[in-house]
Amino acid sequence: MLKTQFIRDERDKVVRSLKIRNWTDDKIAILDRVISADDMRKNTQTELDKLLSQLNQLSKQIGDLFKSGEREEAEQLKQGIPTIKKKTQQLQNTLSEAKDSLSELLLQIPNITHTSVPAGIEDSDNELFEDCKSELKSLGDDALPHWDLAIKYDIIDMVAGAKITGSGFPVFKGKGARLQRSFISFLLDEVTKAGYLEIIPPLLVNEDSARATGQLPDKDGQMYHAVADDLYLIPTAEVPITNLYRDVILKEDDFPIKMAGYTPCFRREAGSYGSDVKGLNRVHQFDKVEIVQITHPDHSYDTLQKMVKLVGQLLDKLELPYRILRLCGGDIGFTSALTFDFEVYSLAQKKWLEVSSVSNFETYQTNRLKCRFKDSEGKSQLAHSLNGSAFGLARIMAAVLENNQTSNGIHIPDVLREYTGFNIID
Question: How many secondary structure helices (H) and strands (E) does the chain include?
Answer without folding.
Answer: 15, 19
